[in-house]
Design a protein that fits this description.
- Helices cover 50% and strands 6% of the residues.
- The protein is mainly α.
- It has one domain: Cytochrome p450 (Orthogonal Bundle), CATH 1.10.630.
- The chain is globular.
- The structure holds protoporphyrin IX containing FE (HEM).
- The site of protoporphyrin IX containing FE (HEM) has 28 residues, from α6, α13 and α17.
- This is Cytochrome P450.
Length: 546
């Protein structure tokens, strides 16, 4: 009886007066309740959690999204820091984000609580479409696979084995000097060729002889596509609207794009692996990291794809980062010519005019080292930091940081903190001469233990494992350029734009936009030495050509 009554009641409301079917009112109310529930879920999720670090007011549903620029957000975070303090809490939609604008917080969280602050956020496009099967070290969540791959990379990049690469770096830097002499207008390509060639030789035992050589071009193309698809906003917000995953490829062109990037990258990395394997099997070619990885393949339990990507990761992580730092150095040298003259004087004292500096000289070049440290401080490449993800709820200085929070160590703000650095906007290498931290005060290491000299390489368990390799390249090229060339801007130093907001590229890694600079050999003798040294180094390259 009861059932019949309910059925009648339902029928009563299923047609309107015109006989058109309508939804029964309780369906409507259920729908409305569902919508309200979903909306309130998103509303609540966009509010800051209790005791979350301070930050700007959130707006319903979007949190702080509208206040955070899509590009160079690190500048805005620095500005917010002045208003809200050095630890900043933000809501990007429902995502909790914390920005650390002081090295003290980075040390306390990334360095001292590394077991919970070392993960990465998993995203559908990056971790499932473009790099599935846990193949990309930089993108890996904290766990066993990351540990395994990180251990392999650290053993490859240990101090001794990295220093064994110095002959490659010396030879490639010698070629770069010749290229800068012959076609200075293409300096951007020459520097990028250098950084790629060093990794190609050390990882694959291959030469990157010219910037337009097929292997160099292929690597840059794959890498540019990879960076482009991972760029914020390049693909729809699948994490917020998971139903987007279900769209077929013809309705979601970004899925096709992801597939193309995946195929190109995988094809390239596997073919580089196979070339090395063939050379090994026929007993040809120089020693390289790929050879070591293949030799230890079974011991490390790594299949071909994982090895191929690990090698590819070294390429991706080590090439543009080092090139960008060298560009910033050149930019600083034309903006601050008096600092460049100091660098030249120092190299002249050590090498004279009859030979250019090599890696054997770098320990006697403290001002060049100060220039390197200052470049890394002044224009950190990963300016906003590479985001870490917190894997457990945590409390810090009375604040509550929920599990899943994305945490940025904002290298830009840390390196431009006026409390730490005198005139942080200025390029002043001298600050690093008597104080390895470059700070305006002498650091008392007994009270300020485990402070890092630079936060440009990140911190904690994910800190860059390629620092030494990068610094060897930076020192060598900075010293050689200062030795061989006068650098200037045709409009004079006053016309050089060094503003990070307008003179630097957007994106997760920043670099100076190509800027006009004149490279002029310092004398005929310098010119002759550059040519002679290149001729002398040519036979070194023979073993990489087959
Ligand atoms: C000036 C040059 C370089 C800079 C500024 C730089 C900076 C960074 C930064 C900021 C990170 C992220 C750290 C974090 O999450 O806290 C990183 C990670 C990494 N870097 Fe570098 N890097 C440079 C050169 C290199 C080189 C030459 C290599 C190796 C050939 C390399 C290999 C890596 C790898 C494999 C990672 C991923 C580590 C992981 O997620 O566990 N980097 N780098």
């Amino acid at each position: 009886m009861m059932g019949q009554k309910r059925h009648d009641k339902m029928m009563e409301f299923t047609f309107n007066v015109n006989g058109h079917p309508v939804l029964p009112s309780y369906y409507l109310s259920a729908g409305a309740i569902l919508i309200i529930l979903v909306l309130s879920k998103y509303f609540v999720a966009s509010c800051r959690p209790r005791n979350f670090p301070p930050g700007p007011r959130t707006l319903p549903f979007i949190g702080n999204i509208s206040q955070v620029p899509r590009v160079k957000a690190f500048l805005k975070f620095h500005e917010f820091g002045k208003q809200y303090g050095s630890i900043l809490g933000l809501k990007l939609g429902s995502q909790n984000v914390v920005v650390l604008n002081s090295y003290k917080h980075v040390r306390a969280l990334f360095d001292q609580k590394g077991s919970i602050y070392s993960s990465r956020t998993r995203t559908y496009v990056a971790n499932e479409l473009v790099c599935p099967n846990e193949i990309h070290l930089l993108l890996l969540e904290y766990g066993n696979e990351w540990r395994k791959q990180r251990k392999i990379v650290q053993s490859l990049l240990n101090v001794n084995s990295v220093d064994r690469l110095l002959p490659i770096q010396n030879a490639e830097a010698t070629q770069t000097m010749l290229e800068l002499l012959q076609s200075p207008q293409d300096y951007y390509d020459h520097i990028r060729r250098y950084t790629t060639a060093v990794i190609l030789a050390s990882v694959y035992g291959q030469r990157g002889e010219r910037f337009d050589a097929p292997n160099v071009k292929a690597l840059y193309h794959a890498q540019d596509q990879f960076s482009a698809i991972l760029e914020q906003g390049a693909t729809p917000p699948v994490e917020t609207f998971p139903f987007l995953k279900l769209l077929p490829e013809f309705m979601a062109p970004w899925k096709k794009w992801a597939r193309t990037v995946r195929e190109e990258q995988k094809g390239l990395y596997l073919s580089l692996l196979n070339e090395t394997r063939e050379r090994m099997e026929s007993g040809r070619g120089p020693a390289c990291y790929m050879q070591e990885m293949l030799r230890d393949q079974v011991k490390n339990n790594m299949d071909d794809e994982h090895i191929a990507y690990l090698a590819g990761n070294l390429m991706e992580a080590g090439s543009d980062t080092t090139a960008s730092t060298l560009f910033s150095f050149i930019l600083a040298m034309i903006k601050y010519p008096e600092e460049f003259r100091k660098a030249q004087r120092e190299v002249d004292q050590v090498c004279g005019a009859s030979r250019s500096p090599t890696s054997d000289d770098v320990d006697r070049l403290p001002f060049i080292k100060a220039c390197m440290d200052e470049t890394l401080r002044w224009r950190p490449v990963a300016a906003g930091g590479v985001p870490h993800m917190l894997t457990q709820d945590d409390t810090y200085q009375g604040y509550f940081l929920p599990r899943g929070t994305i945490v940025f160590a904002n290298a830009w703000a840390i390196h431009h903190d006026e409390a730490e650095y005198d005139k942080p906007e200025e390029f002043i290498p001298g600050r690093f001469l008597n104080n390895k931290y470059g700070t305006r005060y002498a650091v008392d290491e007994s009270k300020d233990a485990n402070r890092r000299e630079s936060y440009g390489f990140g911190a904690g368990r994910r800190v860059c494992p390629g620092q030494r390799l990068a610094k060897n390249s930076l020192m060598l090229n900075m010293a050689k350029i200062a030795w061989g060339f006068d650098l200037f801007s045709s409009g004079g130093s006053g016309s050089v734009n060094v503003d990070v907001a307008s003179a630097y590229t957007d994106g997760f890694l920043i670099a100076p936009e190509k800027f006009p600079v004149v490279f002029k050999a310092r004398s005929d003798q310098h010119r002759d030495v550059i040519i002679r040294e290149y001729e002398a180094v040519k036979p070194f390259f023979d073993k990489y050509m087959d």
